[in-house]
C-alpha cells in the first residue's frame, strides 16, 4: 500500500475481532511511531502495549476515574458494578497501546511541539496498522487526562497520555468517511 492510499483509505475502526494480534505486527507499529518527526531529537514519547489481562492496567485506570468522579455515595455493590463496567472498556480490542508525551526536561522545545511529535507518532502508528490489515482507533475522552489515570500509568512531571490505540483484526463493516474539500480550509498566497 503506498502512502497516499494508506492516508486516504485509513478509517477509525472501533469494532474488531477478539483474536490476538501478532507481536511482530505490534512491533512494526511501534517502530513506525518512533520515526515520527520530533524537534531537536527529543523523541518525547512512551508506549505501553497491553494485551490479554494486561489490558487491566487501562481498565483499572478507567475504573478508578469513574469511582473518583461518582457524584453519589455508592454502595459496595454499586461501586463494584461501576468498576466492572469501566474495566470492560479496556477489553474492546485484543491489544491496546497507550501513548504518552514525555516532554524534554531541557526546555529547548516548546511543550506544544512535544505534543505535536507524540501526536504524529500516533498517526504513523494508525497508518501502519491500516497498511498491515489491522483495524485501529485512537481513543481519548476525559478519563485519559484524569489524575487517577496518570497515577495508573505512573506518569511523572509533565508527562501526559495522548491517547489509546485500540487494535485488532477488523470486522467487515462498511466504513464511512467525510471531509470538507481542502479548498475550504486553504488560502494560497502567491505574491
Ligand atoms: C485526538 C483524537 C482523539 C479521538 N478520540 C476518540 C474517542 O475517544 N472515541 C472515538 O470513537 N473516536 C475518537 N477519535 C477518532 C475520531 O472520531 C475519528 O478520527 C473521526 O471520526 C474521523 O474518522 P476517520 O478516522 O475514520 O477518518 C479520536 C481522534 C483524535 C484525533
Automatic annotation (TrEMBL):
PROSITE patterns: PUA. InterPro entries: NAD(P)H_nitroreductase (IPR052530), Nitroreductase (IPR029479), Nitroreductase-like (IPR000415), YdjA-like (IPR026021). FMN binds at residues 10-12, 39, 138-140. The keyword NAD applies. Its cofactor is FMN. One of its GO terms (molecular function) is oxidoreductase activity. Keywords: Flavoprotein, FMN, NAD, NADP, Oxidoreductase. Its EC number is 1.-.-.-. It comes from the Bacteria. Binds 1 FMN per subunit. SUPFAM superfamilies: FMN-dependent nitroreductase-like. Residues 7-169 form the Nitroreductase domain. Belongs to the nitroreductase family. This is Putative NAD(P)H nitroreductase. It comes from Paenibacillus whitsoniae. The lineage of its organism: Bacteria, Bacillati, Bacillota, Bacilli, Bacillales.
Amino acid at each position: 500500500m503506498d502512502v497516499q492510499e494508506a492516508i486516504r483509505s485509513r478509517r477509525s475502526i472501533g469494532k474488531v475481532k477478539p483474536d490476538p494480534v501478532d507481536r511482530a505486527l505490534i512491533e512494526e507499529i511501534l517502530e513506525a511511531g518512533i520515526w515520527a518527526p520530533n524537534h531537536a531529537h527529543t523523541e518525547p514519547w512512551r508506549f505501553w502495549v497491553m494485551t490479554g489481562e494486561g489490558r487491566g492496567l487501562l481498565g483499572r485506570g478507567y475504573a478508578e476515574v469513574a469511582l473518583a468522579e461518582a457524584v453519589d455515595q455508592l454502595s459496595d455493590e454499586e461501586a463494584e458494578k461501576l468498576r466492572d463496567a469501566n474495566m470492560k472498556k479496556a477489553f474492546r480490542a485484543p491489544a491496546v497501546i497507550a501513548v504518552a508525551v514525555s516532554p524534554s526536561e531541557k526546555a529547548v522545545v516548546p511543550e506544544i511541539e512535544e505534543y505535536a511529535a507524540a501526536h504524529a507518532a500516533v498517526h504513523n502508528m494508525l497508518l501502519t496498522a491500516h497498511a498491515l490489515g489491522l483495524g485501529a482507533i485512537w481513543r481519548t475522552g476525559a478519563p485519559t487526562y484524569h489524575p487517577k489515570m496518570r497515577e495508573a500509568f505512573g506518569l511523572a512531571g509533565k508527562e501526559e497520555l495522548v491517547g489509546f490505540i485500540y487494535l485488532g483484526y477488523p470486522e467487515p463493516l462498511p466504513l464511512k468517511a467525510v471531509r470538507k474539500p481542502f479548498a475550504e480550509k486553504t488560502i494560497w498566497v502567491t505574491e
